[in-house]
Amino acid sequence: MENFTGSKTELNIAKAWMIESANIRKCEIFAKQAKRDGYEQMAAIFMEVAEQKRSHTKTLYKFLENSTIEVSVPVSAKGIGGVLDCLLESSENELHEASVIFEEFERIAWEEGFKKVATKLKLFRQIKQFYHERYQVLAQNIEEGKTFKRDKKVKWICRKCGLIYESERALKNCPGCEHPQAYFEILAENY
Length: 191
Fold this sequence. Notes:
Layout: H1 8-36, H2 40-63, H3 83-111, H4 115-143, E1 149-158, E2 164-169, E3 184-186
Helix pairs in contact: 1-2, 1-3, 2-4, 3-4
């Protein structure tokens, strides 16, 4: 690992590690809220993001090898509202982190000559931008009533039993396993 002891980059990597660690827990909390509100796919997406952020924190932690540093990171929490509130808060946070916080961390790493760190931060910013955009679309789907209803026929899949059928809307209950509509999502054939 690059030795950046005492640099601004060392401090920023420690801050980034703390921010992402907190984001993991927030995603887990928001996933439970999404489940409570009847949005199984969104709960799974929050958990997927939490798992991906674990990978980010591992990378950041490796950069901190042999570091001993004290950091403080401001925390702002809007509370736990409904899933729509969770999506909007997550979207706003990811955008702010990508375009302000991590962008500054990346710039400083480049300035201090830590190319490998700067490159990782650049990649993490791209990922955060993707999270922001995805949360925006999911929030918009809720606002427009499109989560379980579309204007044209699509293939829906039950997340519990795998039943697939084609319609403009998700069934109220799955005829295969009898789980509620919350378990349906549009089939993604991305293999």
